[in-house]
Design goal:
Blueprint (H helix, E strand, L loop, with lengths): L2 H14 L5 E6 L2 H9 L8 H7 L2 H12 L4 E3 L14 E3 L2 H8 L3 E7 L8 E7 L1
Antiparallel strand pairs: 1-5, 2-3, 4-5
Amino acid sequence: LPENVHLNWMQEFKRVVRPGGIVAMTIEPRRFLEFVVALKHKTPENAWHAALQKFSDYAEQAIPLYDSGQLVYLPTGGGGCREPSVYGDAVCPISFLEKNWAPEFSIRSHIDDPKQFWQATVLLQRS
């Protein structure tokens, strides 16, 4: 999700989750940007890789943005059913969640282990 949609969802979670409640989500970690950059000079294995490959240069330039705590959005779209302006690939540093979800939510767990999951997992608890 792009940043504005992400933040709108955070507001909705804040509205509907009771104090003590848990929100579980997955986020694309930094290695996703590295994966997209690595697709640059390869023959795409599938349509998803071909779509991502178009963003290789942008992903390379966006790594410092991610490292500075910014959410990075690649407007890849959702096939033929979702517009790139509202659906794509967001790469979200944990520091972005800490900054934008606090003080209403605190991070209880963050697992970024590619041996377990392709994406990182996050559990947030409502204050």
